[in-house]
Amino acid sequence: MANLKLTLACWDYDRTRPLIDGRVQAEGIDLDIKLLRPRQIFQRMLDDKEFHVSELSLASYTALKGRDECPFVAIPVALSKIFRHSCIYVREGSGIKKPEDLKGKRVGTSQYSSTALVFMRGMLQHDYGVLDSDMHWFMGGLHSFVEPPLIPLNLPPRVKLDFLSGGQTLEGMFQAGELDALLSVYIPNIFLNGTPGIARLWPDFKAVEQDYYRRTGIFPIMHTVALRDDVHRENPWAAKSLYQAFSRARDLAVDGLYDTDALRLALPFLLDHVEETWRVFGKDFWAYGLEPNRPTLAAIGRYVHEQGLSPRIVEADELFARGVE
Fold it and tell me: Which sign does the torsion angle of CA 181, 184, 187, 193 carry?
């Protein structure tokens, strides 16, 4: 029997590269891999279901599950994990010295429903008592590129969200004193360029993130992998094959982190970084699967409901295809 032919859209990460270059193959499947940036993949998959399988925003997927409007079935692969405490920027003179000072402030973001923003708002609410309704939100392009909402927004009346228009940009409004803070998935150019007047809310974000992980067990997952539901219905075995292939590719990437031949020019800095990661997270720091990520998955399911993106809490156990692990 011929292999099943599927298109897979993902980005070129170290944990996907073994699939891209052919070192790892999914049993029974021929993958036609499209290398695209996540922001391109998400919109094309969510709007048009363009690919058979794709990297996908975890928050968008979870919210659609909660709305009973999800045309996808995910597998418990975490292609992107990142803490987001470093992504809150404040304007000098705004009076924001601590998270609680965000109350009553004007806050810009390029994508209100992104997974990063969902985790940031969840962290602000549960750790510092700052609710989504405590801030006036502005959504638009950071400096030029404007992203439409990933999924339709039907936010509760308590949330005040305005959309930028014309030539407005978030960075321009920030520099003009029209915004007090940026919750940004991307590093603002004005920060990268050393423009005066912008700083991270937590300059020592690394220590704050480590404390957050120790207290909560949450290592925020940004992107999962999802199949179109029609593909899953017609080929229910494919989810397990893909999960196993992604897991083997991840293993090759993680094993390579401690390859002293490959790291020779960067030693000892990179080795020290790897060993610090092990000390904080353990050796299985990039775990796939439901159980190792349960605190994170339970959090995203609760946050999408609390923030008005889903009418109900989505339980961790309902997020993924069954029987793939």
Answer: negative
Task: Give the percent of the chain with pLDDT over 90.
Answer: 87
Give the residues across from 320 on adjacent strands.
Answer: 74
Task: Answer for the pair 137, 319: CB distance below 8 angstroms, yes or no.
Answer: no
Is-above-0.85 flag for pTM? yes
For the chain, residues with pLDDT lower than 70 are 258-272
4-81+220-318 — its CATH code?
3.40.190.10
Please give the CATH number for the structural domain made up of 85-216.
Answer: 3.40.190.10
Beta strands 72-81; 160-163: pairing state: unpaired
- As given in the structure block, the two tokens for residue 167 are 């030539």
Domain extents for the chain? 4-81+220-318, 85-216
List the end-to-end C-alpha distance of the chain, in Å, as a whole number.
25
CA distance linking residue 59 with residue 319, whole number of Å: 11
Alpha helices, H only, 9-161: 17-20, 38-48, 58-66, 115-128
Q: Are 4-81+220-318 and 85-216 the same fold in CATH? A: yes
